[in-house]
Amino acid sequence: MDDIDTNCIDHVVLTLLHLKPHDDGRTWMSFDWDAMNHLHEKGFITDPIGKAKSVMVTAAGQPRAEELFHELFTRAI
């Protein structure tokens, strides 16, 4: 499937991570590993590799996640 826009997938995953923070901003990372690695490389989340089953959306990722949430999931009036 060469026609998949992985950047679009990354945007949706970041937006979904933004929806469910818990325990000091950590969020469960049960998403595609490639997307999680892309988001980490872009500086939007903490490193997903390790024993923890959650990550944190970074200071750089938070405003981008909010922007994407409104862009992707809110209705235009």
Give a structural overview.
It comes from Nitrospirillum iridis. Residues 5-75 form the DUF6429 domain. InterPro entries: DUF6429 (IPR045489). This is DUF6429 domain-containing protein. There is one protein chain. This protein has a single domain (6-73), classed as Arc Repressor Mutant, subunit A, CATH 1.10.10. Helix content is 47%, strand content 8%. The protein has three helices and two strands. It has a two-stranded antiparallel sheet. Helix 1 packs across helix 2 (33-41). The longest helix is centred in the N-terminal third of the chain and has 14 residues, at 6-19.
What's the SSE blueprint?
Blueprint: H1 6-19, E1 26-28, H2 33-41, E2 54-56, H3 61-73
Antiparallel strand pairs: 1-2
Pfam family, one: DUF6429
Protein name: DUF6429 domain-containing protein
Domain DUF6429: 5-75
Low-pLDDT runs: none
Helical amount among residues, as a percent range? 40-55%
Please tell me the overall pLDDT. Answer: 82
Secondary-structure element series: HEHEH
Q: Total domains, how many? A: 1
User: Over the alpha carbons, how many angstroms does the gyration radius reach?
Assistant: 12 Å
Query: Tell me about the biggest sheet?
Result: 2 strands, antiparallel
Q: How much of the polypeptide forms β-strand, as a percent range?
A: 5-15%
Overall body shape: globular
The termini sit apart by: 35 Å
Total of DSSP H or I helical runs spanning 4+ residues = 3
Using brief descriptors, characterize the structure shown.
globular; DUF6429 domain-containing protein; 8% strand; 2 strands; Arc Repressor Mutant, subunit A; two-stranded antiparallel sheet; DUF6429; 77 residues; mainly alpha
